Amino acid sequence: MPRKPLKGDVAADEAVYGAIRRAMHMGRLAPGTKLQEPALARVLGVSRERVRKALHRLVHEGWLTAIPNRGTFVPTLTVEEMREIYDVRSMLEAAIVRRLSEGHTAAAAKRLKAHVTEEKVATRRDDRGRLFELSGEFHVLLAELCGNDELTRLLRGLLTRSTMHFSIAAPQQLTNCAGPHDHGDIAEAILGGRADKAAKLMLGHLAGLVTLQASRAPERQSTDLEEAFRGIKARQTKTGAPQGARSN
Amino acid sequence: MPRKPLKGDVAADEAVYGAIRRAMHMGRLAPGTKLQEPALARVLGVSRERVRKALHRLVHEGWLTAIPNRGTFVPTLTVEEMREIYDVRSMLEAAIVRRLSEGHTAAAAKRLKAHVTEEKVATRRDDRGRLFELSGEFHVLLAELCGNDELTRLLRGLLTRSTMHFSIAAPQQLTNCAGPHDHGDIAEAILGGRADKAAKLMLGHLAGLVTLQASRAPERQSTDLEEAFRGIKARQTKTGAPQGARSN
DNA sequence: TGGTAAAATTATGTGCACATTACGTCAAGA
DNA sequence: TCTTGACGTAATGTGCACATAATTTTACCA
Question: Among residues A97, A92, A95, A96, which one has the least CA distance to residue A193?
Fold first, then answer.
């Protein structure tokens, strides 16, 4: 065989990882849910080892929590922990908008304007899913415009962890950020070079988010893995015969 | 057996992880060194799977870099990457000292004073090893005094990554922070409630560190794993017959 | 009838063997 | 002599089976 499409099957790993991540993002998995490896392997149609690797990765990234010899669970974010995450975000993002206000390239300004425009379009169309996505990307975009990859990675991790709990709490009827116009105001302050105002707006924005999240009580979700992963397949029926069908 | 010391052998995992981490911290492993799993397993006297798990964890935490189907390597920190890390640290630590300056408990002031005193003692005794340790802990201590665990974890990760390259570059003859009295000045500004001065001192302190590191060129180290891990054992000859000795 | 203890079952964790892939070496042709 | 191709070796990645630990169920005793 000259060429084979599978190069270490890193795609399969990514698929399993993405499937679990997507299920959490869609609010299918309630906090405290135990993710059993055999059940997940059966539902997703992959081997248990692949599920194990994906779970380990998710644990390392903070999406899940593992208890030795007990299993892997969807974390139950305390109000205190959430407040801490937003506290760190406040430190970083205030510094970010300050720096961008004090100086940025023309290309950065262009990207920022384009993003705000896109958010306005999504708001006008009432496209909640797209707006949710864009709202998160806004904060990552600001980090990216600083040109610091380390900063971007760090902030993205914090953001995913906070929005995760957000989407778990009330997935269907939420806007990721308090007011969509907040982002526009912040961008305007940055582009106008008003560092203090931009930082103040950002701090108020984040404070609004944390109160918004704290107000929502996480309602009970389905804990049945079979139902939780309905429609969320690891791979799009790429391989007809998954090796999940064991001989024993 | 009523009680067994091994509870899932999480201790062994930690030992292997710590051994590799210690070897890096001691500057035994040169940047670019390939960490082969069989060789590591043979040297440390543990199974290959345990080495694999430790390597995966180290990769996730940013200590090592993995290339699919190629192996795991000691990362070669670019000057740019190092600058980025210190940039993020500047953002966080400036906010930290500002917050502490604006208000802190009496217990916090006590811990801070005690640490500065301890550093002075180590400096007077010319105890480089202890001073290196204390210098790193100073920055973690400031994060801890904010009472934010998330912040502490994040900053500790950044600090270990930056000091890692530090110790790799020149392990024997370094002081972790530019001037030991810097910490004393910063602490004094915090205790005096002078937020702007404390932030300014911290920024200058970190800027001094990054220039200090950039000036040192990483000299060539030993790439022989056998020699690199001499004296650094995972477990203290607990298991007499390691299963790392394979038949082939 | 309620509580406790023991056994069975289920799930996690780990060692092992094999498949696949990349790297080094040697030989043949230009 | 240099380049290119193929072959052999070694390391990584993954599926599999067993050992260990925890949970649940059941049975027995108070």
Answer: A97
